[in-house]
Amino acid sequence: MSYVLQSGYLVAAVLLILGLRGMSSPRTAHRGLVWVGVGMVLAVLVTFIHTGTGNIGLMLLALVLGGVLSAVYGRQVPMTAMPQGVALFNGMGGGAAGAIAAVELVGGSATGGAPLVLGVLGALIGTVSLTGSGVAFAKLQGWMRRPLRFAGMPLVNGLLAVFALGLGIALMAGVQTDPVLAAYFGVAMALGVLLTMPIGGADMPVVISLYNAATGLAVAFEGYLLSNPAMIIAGTVVGAAGTLLTLLMARAMHRTVFQVVGAGFRSPEADAAATQEGGMLKGIEPVDAGIQLGYARKVIIVPGYGMAVAQAQHKVWELVQRLEERGVEVKFAIHPVAGRMPGHMNVLLAEAGVPYDLVADLETINPEFAQADVALVIGANDVVNPSARNMPDSPIYGMPILNVDEAANAIVIKRGSGQGFSGVENPLFTADNTRILFRDALEGASDLVQALKQA
């Protein structure tokens, strides 16, 4: 029976690996998802056989609750809310790893050796991921608009890290009393909150990826504690893939992972730079904006989260077609994290039928802004903020941006005068050559199409 169980776990792990590989390409993503699903079902069946019928009722209840809730959430969540969905499920994975460790430590099942060390480490990583992902979810959901810091935060974080290390060593030494366990998990929860609170919204994609890697690592460690091969392999694969993605995303943002996680160590001047008052916004009517666009030789469109929320990609593509009929050269400029998720804008534009040769990435399009007559920004903010290039005290300094400010003129479609997701003022919006079309993305694009028809 043991050979059959181990073989089942091995097949499930292989299916998970093949599924993750399939999800690396849009053409094979659906097949990859199916393989991952089959692998998970097989792993659950093997776990049922391995565990026996002792906790069959609780296991079935957990499966039904988890399955129903995730199915309802998955069907209802819009694509624009996927980042916070990922954060939510990351947190649940980390919390599950922490809960497994808590049960094993409280029950005295973890008695020593490498499994105990890995179990204690997994408990810390999983619990930090639980509360840190919760804060990330609140930021992405708009419940926490600004980075939160307080005087002495670096010292507090340092002390908490030292406490966590000391308590972890005590647990590994066999001091598994209730007060020590409670303090260990309490410190880990506080660390997750305090490490994530001061991180700005522009860095949230990197943070989510980092917690995804942490959750995978925690699951793998708890797999050692339970001697469960499926958890070890799946957690290791997720942890490795998440780590690579985190490093690539941080590199694309011109930052190190430590610079992102260490946001609480920034100077107070950074907050002042983030909240300083800007100049006056200058509005423009659709007719005037349509004339500017219609008589331009070259227009670069910068889509962002606002276009995704308004589902304006089809109307934007119609606007591009009207411009091309008038002989205007049009290109799309895509920031690596536009829409808060890598590839988000590319998917939306492809869905609307925009040819790939009209879409350019940041490195390709940036030199062309200086030759553009008009840069049309649709629902984007932080990714076109020149503070990231010009203001060393800005919280987003160093982040690569699209050089919209180098275009001869800029038209920005935005609903109001609010700041971007990072909470940083954007001097582009008050520049002399920038005009604001106060509309949501769909209404703004529709008005511009009508204005071009009448021009």
Explain this structure.
The protein is elongated. Helices cover 61% and strands 7% of the residues. The chain contains 18 helices and 6 strands. The chain has 455 residues and is α/β, with parallel strands linked by helices. The protein has helices spanning 2-22, 29-51, 56-76, 82-107, 113-140, 153-172, 178-196, 204-226, 229-252, 257-261, 268-275, 286-294, 305-310, 313-325, 344-352, 362-365, 387-390, 441-454, and strands at 298-303, 329-334, 359-361, 374-378, 409-414, 434-438. It has a 6-stranded parallel β-sheet.
Draw up the topology in text:
Layout: H1 2-22, H2 29-51, H3 56-76, H4 82-107, H5 113-140, H6 153-172, H7 178-196, H8 204-226, H9 229-252, H10 257-261, H11 268-275, H12 286-294, E1 298-303, H13 305-310, H14 313-325, E2 329-334, H15 344-352, E3 359-361, H16 362-365, E4 374-378, H17 387-390, E5 409-414, E6 434-438, H18 441-454
Parallel strand pairs: 1-2, 1-4, 2-3, 4-5, 5-6
Helix pairs in contact: 1-2, 1-9, 4-5, 4-8, 5-6, 5-7, 5-8, 6-7, 8-9, 12-18, 14-18
Pfam family, one: PNTB
Membrane topology: Multi-pass membrane protein
InterPro entries: DHS-like_NAD/FAD-binding_dom (IPR029035), NADH_DH_b (IPR012136), PNTB-like (IPR034300)
